Amino acid sequence: MADVRSVHTHLQHYERHLARLEELRELLQDQLTAALSRPRPAGAAADPRTSEIEAAIDRMDRGIYGTCRCCGTFIAYEQLLRTPYRSICDRCALQRGLQHD
Ligand SMILES: [Zn+2]
Q1: Per-domain residue ranges for the chain?
Q2: For the whole prediction, is pTM greater than 0.85?
Q3: Cα(13) to centroid of ligand 1, in Å?
Q4: Three-state SS at 94
């Protein structure tokens, strides 16, 4: 027989996960709005971050947001809160000499 308490715990984890995703989506939307409204000199290229943020929102829509594109593991929530548009975990970023902050 299934352990009711562990099912309940799983549900709670799932709900927390969804709440965190919603929070991160709002963060991304805010950052996108800020990036788009930032004044830039005429003829200057768009902030490269804008496309990163848009790509992250797209990943969210496709349900693949939050996993590292290199090693495939879930990126820690704390890392996503710091840079919600990231597509790579701290460990892989370090290995590749990438900076994310
Ligand atoms: Zn990784």
Answers
A1: 4-36+49-95
A2: no
A3: 22
A4: helix
